[in-house]
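Example 320, ligand adenosine-5'-triphosphate.
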Amino acid sequence: MPELPVAGKIITAQNLVKRYNGKAVVDGIDFHVHRGECFGILGPNGAGKTTTVRMIYGLSPISDGELMVLDMDANRCSREIRKQLGVVSQDNNLDPDLTVWENLVMFARYYGLQPAHIREHLQKLLTLMDLANRSHTRVETLSGGMKRRLAIARSLINNPALLILDEPTTGLDPQARHLVWQQLRSIKKQKITILLTTHYLEEATKLCDRLIIMDHGRILDEGTPPELVEKHVGPEVLELGLKEDPARWQESIISRYPKLLKDSWLLGNTLYLYTNHGGKLLQEIQEITPPCQYHLLRATTLEDVFLKLTGKELGATDVE
Ligand SMILES: Nc1ncnc2c1ncn2[C@@H]1O[C@H](COP(=O)(O)OP(=O)(O)OP(=O)(O)O)[C@@H](O)[C@H]1O
Ligand SMILES: [Mg+2]
């Protein structure tokens, strides 16, 4: 195993900036990734997730700020850093004409490892990723999920100190996605530090110990999934699918029940009422009979946090 930094911080980004043609697509972000954790970057298309991880694995020089990876400067030591990383990029980047086994062996050679010596290691990786019976299958004929699992197996060949997964399950069907999550949980148990980007809220909730929510190149907030839920939306939400005047109903409900409401958010005709007192709020609302197509009282999730944070951010951008 490579030697790990003593300080326990695998990545430190301070005021990190990436500009393309003078435009900042990563716009002064700060975060740390601690040793042994699974850290997530959650954000919609174009948020700057891939750009951020490409700077971490040295494929894209930073424009400004500071980025330390494994105690090394990302701009000056990119080769050294890369040797200690496992990377699964957004496109699997496998050789379709070779078999599963040949793909692994080719990568092992790239790292200067002798296949004869690491046969057992490669077999273990295939077993871990549930591909042991596919060794001789040509990659071209594998399903999307299998390709992804092979890319993950390949990223572990050099026993990385940090595993970077850029949208590990995008484009997979739900069953394949669940299988990848299962395998990533096994990897997590081995205490490998993981940095993963995703735009799936369920993925972030299931896998990440801590995460940042990013949009338009900026960090909107950071925390564990339960912390973010508690901070922004509280435990419950009452959704009202309003038939008419949603903005007026929102205003009226806010002014009537200031003590029952933690916050509210209107998206189209759907009014989200965040609350610590779901039962009581529902009872009160039923008495004033707003014209609803449906109502739903449910536990909040990271999805509500995301909606609220990115919605506000988008709103702010529209005003600028
Ligand atoms: N090489 C480049 N030249 C110019 N602009 C770029 C380049 N790479 C990325 N961008 C822009 O930077 C922004 C962030 O892109 P990035 O790929 O980091 O987003 P992302 O969060 O990974 O999105 P997705 O979920 O679609 O993968 C986008 O507006 C994109 O068009
Ligand atoms: Mg991306």
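Summary: Residues 49-50, 90, 166-167 surround magnesium ion (ligand 2) (CB under 6 Å).
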